């Protein structure tokens, strides 16, 4: 207030008046009161805003809970700074559940719903001075009382490891709740390891008597939760060796952890499809079982002792939590799998543009070889020899390429899983860390083995030597497929040549061949007839069975037709329906023809480029097919000695024969006389076939009458085989690596696709999306237009990240399916929860996403309890050190790793001597004492709240 004086001024009084004239503010007398006022203002603002407005103003949701939020305000008192946090839920009604996994630690300990925490902004975050803690709590309590708030307030005290708190709550009446929590981390008294001692500890807080508590009856509400954990199977394993590829461990002679018996130790994924290439860390380290006993009334220590001997099967509720490896949510790191090796292969592709030939990466004359040598390891010769033995000398049985192949796999232009080149690419992923020098060494030795198979006429392993070339695969696979066919053809020619020599010797000795009473063909005809047998007559379109050699020979010499021309018929596969020759009126016969020459994709492209260069004229197209056309015409002439050019066109190219309208509309005679009257049929060649100088007619005139077994094969295996080897030996490095990348991605995905994961829908969809993504990204490698450091390289690296996510999810799905094979519902629910938890990380690096711990629990149905119980196998002799057995409630010999108990007593406020001052709406049963206990055999935490009338 302002004060003035009316006294006449004098010299001395004037000076005194100036000292008295000032403004005195007595509302905030001290820093302590200003501190309380500041807390009160903040709390009033939070109360006025309410949960909804606080959310709009930036309240933060807690990671472990979907319904608990926090707002924060920084305060200053004297020289210290404090942080005041308000925790609240959007729905304020209802009671706090005892064992809700989404509860905050203070909610669980003290049974509160919304609360304040005020703590110093220091490294420890706790108040180490007891008077300071009391003063701080008093300031908050006064501020909350001034603004009529019922929020409980807590202050962290003592050492942070003790998780100790003191707190207070004004309950709006004469009642006040006080809170206190502390923690013992070592030397827990034996008595407090058992339910009986814990019960007496709680009773001692309100039973002020020196009488032995065991002899007294105190009605106490009791509820308990026990947590059990399976013993990890890989406790004694070295994680680094588990992550090491099995091939490298064997190749380099490494014995994991110095244990000589490790090689005989079975891994969890020994029968998984990827186990041939690497051993994956089991993503499911174990399971936690949470058994909950619902609230019940106990009256004595003896009753608590009986409860300690109860089996977990007597608990009202079971819940499980899958303990997952932290590597599931980490990107890259030390985890080894297809994705990690594919990432290195992409790096090798990026380097492959630096040289013209693969030999340059291992040659000492290469200028950049010194840098390569210093940074890239070349596997020793023993490793190369073992891999080549696996590729070329083991597993001679041809694989089923369709096995495990996804329906979208063919959209990726690579080699099929199990083929020679696919196996080479998969081996390359694990040799020498998949660097370019190691790949170059392995490729050079690979080509030497392929050439050896060619020169020695040995079958090319893991490649089919029959059928057509699969143009949907990569070019290297097409070349190897064609080379396998060439080797087979070369072997057939060698065998036929030897048979021919033996047949000539037999003729010289005997003077004749075959049955004397039958005119059998000479050995030359018999010899070439062997090659005819697999051929399919073009005219029959595969509709008639191929005639055997004996039937065909008999038809050649004993025809039902009496004409001499018919007796000269050779190489016939049978009559073509009712078709007749135009001049002789004989039945038209379809000939056996030679197989058309096989062509790879680049050969087809060369022909198309030639057509584009010279024009798409009919004559030029025929010129390209001249050898095939001449062969077919020669075979047709041999099978139909009286045939003319028009007959061949009617059989080979019916579209170039035009029937007259009168013949089409005229009556069709069924008798022989009717056919003769209408003979020859009224028709003519098409315009292109009737042109002067038509190339087809010229080829027809020049073609001799030779059956297929007397013709030279259209495919020259020796020439084509050498061309293929030349292609492989001179292949540019980037062209090799491009095809390796496509094949490695496809083969890796097809390998993982064989995993049995219980048919989980999310996993099936994710695998299908992976194939579509790979097909979209890898199609750019087929154009041969990429270069080092291009956008395609970056796309491939991002594809590796996507592949890694799918691989991790698939490994988890497989592990869950194996662990819960008798409880598929639990397997599916756990995977679904983790999939939704992991989904934000898909396609991104985990370092860019906040790390959260997966803690979603699943309810166990009564019929599933026995299955879960069997997972807790009794500890073995080697695990005897685990048998502490200090707490009871054992499950198959396992004691709980943690036991949580809540004791409470209740009293009616109506019977209290302050009941008259209590509002009617609060005249009900109140919780007077509550104690939360969390203990193991090594530590004990106790949180006590007491309601009093102070």
Summarize this, please?
The chain is an alpha+beta fold. The chain has 31 helices and 18 strands.
Widest beta sheet: strand line-up = 1-2-3-4-5-6-7-18-17-16-8-9-10-15
Number of helices: 31
Low-confidence stretches: 1-7, 234-263, 506-566, 662-677, 845-850, 913-917
**C-alpha geometry:** elongated
Strand proportion, as a percent range, falls in 5-15%
Count of extended strands: 18
Main sheet, how many strands, which sense, barrel?
Answer: 14 strands, mixed
The residue fraction in helices comes out at: 25-40%
Mean pLDDT: 79
The computed structural class is alpha+beta
End-to-end gap:
38 Å
Cα radius of gyration in angstroms: 45 Å
Can you characterise this structure?
There is one protein chain. The chain is 40% helix and 14% strand. The longest helix has 36 residues, at 475-510. Strand 2 and strand 3 form a beta hairpin. The strands form 3 sheets. A 14-stranded mixed sheet has the order 1-2-3-4-5-6-7-18-17-16-8-9-10-15. The model is unreliable at 1-7, 234-263, 506-566, 662-677, 845-850 and 913-917 (pLDDT under 50). The chain is built from 31 helices and 18 strands.
């Amino acid at each position: 207030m302002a004060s003035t004086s009316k006294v006449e001024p004098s010299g001395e009084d004037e000076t005194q008046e100036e000292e008295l004239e000032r403004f005195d503010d007595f509302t905030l007398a001290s820093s302590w009161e200003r501190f309380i006022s500041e807390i009160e203002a903040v709390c009033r603002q939070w109360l006025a805003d309410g949960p909804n407005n606080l959310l709009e103003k930036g309240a933060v949701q807690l990671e472990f809970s979907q319904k608990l939020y926090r707002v924060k305000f920084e305060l200053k008192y004297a020289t210290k700074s404090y942080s005041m946090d308000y925790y609240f839920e959007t729905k304020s009604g209802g009671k706090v559940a005892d064992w809700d996994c989404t509860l905050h630690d203070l909610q669980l300990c003290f049974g509160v719903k919304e609360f304040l925490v005020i703590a110093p902004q220091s490294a420890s975050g706790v108040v180490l001075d007891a008077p300071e803690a009391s003063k701080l709590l008093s300031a908050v309590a006064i501020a909350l009382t001034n603004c009529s708030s019922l929020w409980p307030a807590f202050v962290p005290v003592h050492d942070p490891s003790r998780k100790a708190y003191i707190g207070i709550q004004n309950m709006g009446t004469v009642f006040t709740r006080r809170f206190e929590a502390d923690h013992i981390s070592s030397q827990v008294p034996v008595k407090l390891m058992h339910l009986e001692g814990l019960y007496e500890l709680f009773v001692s807080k309100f039973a002020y008597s020196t009488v032995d508590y065991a002899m007294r009856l105190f009605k106490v509400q009791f509820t308990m939760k026990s947590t059990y954990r399976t013993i990890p199977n890989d406790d004694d394993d070295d994680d680094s060796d588990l992550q090491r590829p099995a091939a490298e461990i064997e190749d380099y002679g490494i014995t994991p952890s110095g244990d000589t018996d490790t090689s005989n130790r079975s891994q969890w994924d020994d029968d998984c499809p990827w186990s041939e290439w690497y051993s994956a860390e089991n993503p499911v380290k174990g399971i936690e079982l949470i058994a909950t006993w619902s609230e019940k009334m106990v009256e004595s220590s003896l009753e608590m002792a009986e409860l300690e001997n109860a089996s977990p099967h007597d608990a009202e509720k079971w819940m499980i939590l899958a303990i997952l490896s932290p590597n599931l949510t980490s990107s890259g790191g030390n985890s080894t799998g297809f994705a990690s090796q594919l990432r290195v292969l992409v790096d090798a592709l990026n380097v492959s543009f630096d040289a013209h030939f693969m030999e340059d990466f291992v040659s000492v004359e290469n200028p950049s070889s010194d840098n390569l040598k210093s940074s890239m390891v070349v596997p020793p010769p023993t490793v190369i020899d073992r891999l080549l033995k696996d590729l070329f000398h083991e597993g001679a049985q041809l694989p089923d390429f369709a096995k495990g192949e996804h329906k979208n796999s063919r959209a990726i232009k690579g080699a099929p899983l199990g083929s020679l080149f696919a196996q080479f690419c998969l081996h390359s992923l694990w040799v020498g860390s998949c660097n370019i020098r190691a790949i170059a060494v392995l490729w050079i030795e690979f080509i030497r083995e392929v050439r050896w198979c060619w020169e020695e006429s040995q079958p090319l392993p893991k490649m089919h030597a029959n059928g057509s070339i699969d143009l949907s695969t990569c070019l290297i696979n097409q070349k190897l497929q064609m080379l396998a066919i060439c080797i087979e053809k070369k072997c057939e020619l060698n065998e036929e040549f030897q048979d021919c020599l033996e047949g000539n010797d037999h003729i010289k000795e005997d003077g004749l061949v075959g049955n004397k009473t039958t005119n059998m063909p000479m050995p030359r005809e018999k010899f070439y007839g062997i090659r005819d047998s697999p051929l399919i007559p073009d005219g029959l379109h595969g509709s008639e069975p191929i005639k055997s050699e004996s039937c065909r020979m008999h038809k050649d010499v004993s025809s039902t037709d009496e004409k001499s021309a018919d007796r000269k018929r050779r190489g016939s596969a049978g009559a073509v329906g009712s078709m007749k020759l135009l001049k002789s009126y004989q039945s038209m016969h379809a000939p056996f023809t030679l197989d058309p020459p096989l062509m790879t994709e680049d050969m087809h492209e060369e022909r198309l480029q030639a057509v584009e260069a010279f024009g798409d004229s009919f004559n030029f197209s025929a010129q390209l097919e001249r050898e095939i056309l001449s062969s077919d015409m020669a075979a047709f002439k041999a099978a139909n000695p009286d045939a003319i050019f028009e007959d061949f066109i009617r059989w080979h190219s019916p579209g170039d024969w035009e029937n007259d309208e009168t013949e089409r509309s005229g009556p069709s005679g069924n008798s022989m006389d009717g056919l003769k009257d209408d003979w020859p049929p009224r028709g003519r060649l098409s315009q292109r076939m009737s042109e002067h100088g038509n190339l087809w007619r010229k080829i027809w005139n020049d073609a001799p009458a030779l059956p297929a077994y007397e013709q030279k094969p259209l495919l020259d295996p020796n020439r084509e085989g050498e061309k293929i080897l030349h292609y492989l030996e001179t292949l540019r490095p980037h062209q090799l690596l491009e095809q390796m990348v496509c094949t490695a991605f496809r083969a890796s995905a097809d390998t993982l696709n064989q995993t049995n994961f219980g048919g989980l829908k999310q996993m099936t969809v994710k695998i299908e999306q992976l194939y579509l993504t790979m097909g979209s990204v890898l199609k750019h490698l087929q154009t041969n237009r990429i270069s080092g450091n291009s956008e395609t390289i970056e796309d491939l690296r991002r594809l590796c990240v996507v592949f890694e996510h799918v691989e991790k999810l698939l490994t988890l799905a497989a592990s869950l399916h194996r662990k819960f094979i008798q409880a598929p519902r639990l397997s599916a629910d756990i995977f679904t929860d983790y999939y939704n938890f992991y989904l934000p990380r898909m396609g991104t690096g985990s370092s860019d996403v906040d790390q959260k711990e997966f803690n979603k629990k699943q309810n166990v149905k009564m019929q599933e309890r026995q299955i879960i119980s069997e997972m807790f196998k009794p500890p073995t002799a080697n695990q005897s050190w685990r048998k502490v057995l200090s707490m009871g409630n054992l499950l198959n010999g396992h004691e709980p790793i943690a036991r949580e108990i809540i004791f409470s007593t209740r009293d009616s406020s109506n019977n209290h001597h302050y009941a008259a001052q209590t509002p009617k709406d609060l005249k009900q049963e109140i919780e007077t004492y509550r104690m939360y206990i969390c203990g193991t055999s090594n530590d004990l935490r106790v949180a006590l709240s007491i309601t009093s009338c102070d």
